[in-house]
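Board notes (copied after class):
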Amino acid sequence: MSSDLKMKHNTRADQATQRDPSNAGKGAERVARGFAHAFGDEPVWTVQAPGRVNLIGEHTDYNDGFVLPMAIDRGVWIAFRPRADRHIRLDSLDYRQSIEFDLNSLRHGGAAWGEYAKAVAWVLQAEGHPLRGWEGVMSGEVPVGAGLSSSAALELATARALALASDIAWDAPAMARVAQRAENEWVGVACGIMDQLASACGLAQHALLIDCRSLEIKPVLLPESMSVLVLDTGTRRGLVTSAYNRRREECQAGAQAFGVSSLRDLTRDVFAAGEARLDPVVRRRVRHVLSENARTLSAVQALRDQNMGQVGRLMAESHVSLRDDHEVSSPALDAMVEIASAQPGCWGARMTGAGFGGCAVALVESESAQVAGQAIASAYQERMKRQPSVYVCRAADGAGVLPG
């Protein structure tokens, strides 16, 4: 989970279902034009990092559990050039704002989105990396606050830029940990590692089974017959001020009650024997995490077997658990999941991300994706009187340097 920083949200009221297979090229062109306008020259490098959608395994990452995200073909791009000093300037085309900071004196303050860039620089320096300055232009196409990890995308794009400018060897899992620490310690969101690992280590045509304790990553090939619909309800939340950190504290209380370091170490049999002594709220939180870990591993096997009916059933169970036991859904998310699940060609749907607003995800037959997306958007708008956005997404590679 992440804080999903408030980047520009590209909702198109006249086209609810969207797919753009050339997003990366357009993003690179956009920041190159922006760079030329701002600095009168061509950039030396362009980097990108994707957002992510989590197929199943929610609120398990900070409990050392299992998650199954995939990087998506929507991300953050930065075009930049090195400087001779230790000063960084980054212009956001989406916000029409600039941030500037000196690597010798990093301080909080300024544009909120800029804190994520400063945070990554702060962690890299704290871990002993000498950094050099650069100046660049940024743009993103990850819907904001939607549970698709716009913050992780910005963090990893910034890390890529800092690594290039400073001749730091790129180690994707290590940079994911840097970005997580940046969000935990500088931004103040107690997120797990899932978002950053997915953005750093994504693999085209694959989801990633991530063990959030060992950080072992196993690619899971997605069926060619399957499309992923990201269903944006148009509702938003901010994790820093939401109940996200409280959910984490409740899970920690559950682990402490059973004398384990995290809920990963609690078996379902031990929980069943001792759940009656737990506070009712904590009991529900623990029940969700234990059952969600089991569902995630079952879903991986079902995907490998191409048993899409079973995958869909597990997604439905996940949503009910998130709604009733973890209590992180919302009327908008519940409506979106119900509408999507009723569509022909839809195997399953669930809320995705931290919850309290944002997106749901649905797995549908590829041949039905566009029709299903349009039907879902229409039915949701009629029921909720709110304009949604539906994105047909594909699994993408992780943070990288674009050829130039």
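Comment from the instructor: The chain has eleven helices and 13 strands. The CA atoms of residues 7 and 46 lie 19 Å apart.
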